[in-house]
Write a structure and sequence with these properties.
By secondary structure, the chain is mostly helical. It is built from 18 helices and four strands. The strands form two sheets. It has a two-stranded antiparallel ribbon. It has a two-stranded parallel sheet with strand order 3-4. The structure holds arginine.
């Protein structure tokens, strides 16, 4: 079969060139968007009197038929078809002859691939927002369940202050909320239709780009034809959002791995998310969490790949741009699957409060609370900090807890202290006291959960 562009050529393509040039191996997944774009295009051409209604009807029927054939796996494309756009159009021409040749009027593959990819990314954004929302719902549910459950919060991987598990989980809720908002922003900015920009400069034919934009569900047509065929910013934005979100997943996954370790034992990841060892019979490895932690690498890679591809490309279309798809598609698949699997894993995870309780007695988690209590006694914070530091030293000397320090020992640290001047030293007391906006007090966390639920309602 001669290529659809073979008019000015005397020779066919070299075999290895044909293979190297083709994108059909990875762009077939754009077929439904390509057909949608073509149907809108030919509808507009007929409305504008550029093709007849009868031609339009035959073309649309032909395209619908091809869609069915692709879906049923009845069409086999090879590198001879070059890309999905040529494959669909070539099949249509094979089917309809002369009429089929009219579809590509006032259109180029440059605006065609641009509109197909945008349609595809828009659809995928909605799907990823859906899985992220599912993750958010699981987080809200777990946060509610563990709103009063105390665990130590860490800084520098050292016990810092007591928090609740609900509070800790709500931190992830905020991260994934921003991920959703970033996707919504990207969607808004990319919601303009490049179809009809043609090769780079528009057309002499009386097309109506507003109409195709409307038919395809875009806000409006893109403003400048040259930009329309050269712009891949939305892919870069999408991959940036994907990278940030995968980084969140990786951080959360890391916490799962160490919470699941023998040293921590905070959680017991469900068997269905773990694997065994081929040599050590006792092992139950948190493979899913580790894989999720590692998947971020490929997504970062795709972001840097497209940034590098786009760098230095002159206006307008260049074949370099064909390199925009594989990484994009892989990032979509990876991101969607990662969020889904994480949400399911979290759904099945329960915290082992017995184990966690044992860890709360170490590390003087209530030190800051005592210092803040001294502030209410009129002691300046810096001084209070110093005093509590000395109390820690005294405890360490005597291998004691704050609550075990005697009146004499306290007096020795600072004349103003006595056991009666000590605040509620229990972990519950510490957590309940942190009622500042955004703090870890259970009532405050419940407020955060409510705000989160309202935000999801309004999505
Ligand atoms: N397969 C091409 C791509 O993905 C389609 C556009 C080709 N346009 C061209 N002028 N060669 O970018």
């Amino acid at each position: 079969m001669a290529n659809l562009w073979s008019g000015r050529f005397e020779k066919g393509m070299d075999e290895i060139v044909e293979k190297f040039n083709a994108s059909i191996g990875f762009d077939t997944r754009l077929y439904a968007c390509d057909i949608r774009g073509s149907i809108a295009h030919v509808t507009m051409l007929a409305e504008q009197g550029i093709v007849s209604d009868e031609e339009k009807d035959r073309i649309i029927a032909g395209l619908e038929k091809i869609r069915g054939q692709i879906e049923r796996g009845e069409l086999e494309f090879t590198v001879k078809n070059e890309d999905i756009h040529m494959a669909v159009e070539g099949t249509l021409i094979g089917e309809l002859g002369e009429t089929g040749k009219k579809l590509h009027t006032a259109r180029s593959r440059n605006d065609q691939v641009a509109v197909d990819t945008r349609l595809y990314v828009k659809d995928e954004i909605l799907q990823i927002v859906d899985v992220l929302t599912y993750m958010e719902k699981v987080l809200l549910e777990k946060a509610e369940k563990y709103a009063d459950s105390i665990v130590s919060g860490f800084t520098h991987m050292q016990h810092a202050q007591p928090v609740t598990i609900g509070f800790h989980l709500m931190a992830y809720f905020q991260m994934f909320k921003r991920d959703i908002e970033r996707l919504q922003d990207t969607y808004e900015r990319m919601d303009y239709c490049p179809l009809g920009a043609c090769a780079l400069a528009g057309t002499t034919l009386p097309t109506n780009r507003h109409r195709t934009a409307e038919l395809l569900g875009f806000k409006a047509p893109t403003e400048n034809a040259m930009d329309s065929v050269s712009d891949r910013d939305y892919i870069i934005e999408f991959l940036s959002a994907a990278s940030i979100s995968m980084m969140h997943i990786s951080r959360f996954a890391e916490e799962f791995v160490w919470w699941n370790s023998q040293e921590f034992g905070y959680i017991d990841i469900d068997d269905s998310f773990c694997t065994g060892s081929s040599i050590m019979p006792q092992k139950k490895n948190p493979d899913m969490a580790e894989l999720l932690r590692g998947k971020v690498g490929r997504v970062y890679g795709h972001l840097f790949q497209i940034l590098t591809v786009m760098k230095g490309t002159p206006l307008a279309y260049n074949k370099d741009f064909q390199e925009d798809k594989e990484g994009l598609f892989d990032a979509i698949d990876t991101w969607k699957a990662s969020v889904r699997i994480f949400a399911k894993m979290l759904e099945k995870t329960e915290f082992r409060m017995d184990r966690i309780a044992q860890t709360l007695t170490r590390g003087f988690l209530n030190a800051t609370d005592i210092a803040e209590h001294f502030v209410t006694m009129g002691i300046p914070f810096r001084e209070a900090h110093e005093i509590v530091g000395k109390m820690v030293k005294a405890c360490e000397h005597g291998n004691k807890d704050f609550a075990d320090l005697t009146d004499e020992e306290l007096k020795e640290v600072d004349g103003r202290l006595s056991r009666a001047s000590m605040p509620d030293l229990t972990m519950e007391g510490c957590v309940n006291g942190r009622t500042s906006f955004g703090g870890t007090a259970p009532d405050e966390v419940r407020r955060q959960i409510r705000v989160g639920e309202e935000w999801i309602e309004a999505l």
